[in-house]
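This section describes the prediction task in plain terms. A model, or a person checking by hand, is given the sequence of a single protein chain and must write out its three-dimensional structure as a string of tokens. No templates, partner chains or ligands are provided. The sample shown here is typical of the held-out split.
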Amino acid sequence: MFDIEVPAPEGARSLMQIGQALGLAGVGLEGGGMWSSVAHYLIADPETATRVLAAAGCGGAIVRPVLLAELDADVPGALARMMRSLVDAGVTLHAQYSDHDNRKVLVVDDVERAREALGAA
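The expected answer:
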């Protein structure tokens, strides 16, 4: 799976354009959101996504592989412990959000090192 980061300078209008372009191309959004005028979505087909977004005038997309990690969100401090493992391993976190299965989507500089740090399969 991949994170696609897309500029969304016009808020809802930008998300409408992004969603329409990806939806018409059959690219599903498995999680994500928008903050600070930048949208992040979890996708399976980055080639199609970047192609249709560029054709729709939504250029500037950045695609990165992600690590999907389980987090016991009901346990206080679970996120801090997860992040401590990444920090201790020297992993840089670019973005973090949840997917539709309540897993953490971690956009990191080194997926394999993050996977090892978290003991993820």
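For orientation: Residues 12-24 form the longest helix (13 residues).
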